[in-house]
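User: I'm putting together a teaching handout on how sequence relates to shape, and I'd like one worked example. Could you take F-BAR domain-containing protein from Elysia marginata, show the sequence you're using, and then write out its predicted structure as tokens right after it?

Assistant: Happy to. First the sequence, then the structure tokens directly below it.
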Amino acid sequence: MCCLSLHLRILNTFILKFAKKKLQLPFASKRKKKKKKKKKKKKKKKKKKKKKKKKKKKKRKKKSWRKNEEEEDEKEEEEQKK
């Protein structure tokens, strides 16, 4: 009798160790575990980048302030002559 209980104790510890490690032994798992369904990953479509059209900037004619002053002076001189 004592021999049998010892064997059972050893067998029980062996089963528990394997059950903790989640190894599948037919006599270790009492409950059937539900299999989890794997979710399929959706592939993301890559968006095509649209090329931006560059707007042409209108060039403004920049007059230097010196030239402006000279022109104004010339105009004033012409007016004075008249």
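A couple of points you could highlight for students: The radius of gyration is 47 Å. Residues 2-20 form the longest helix (19 residues).
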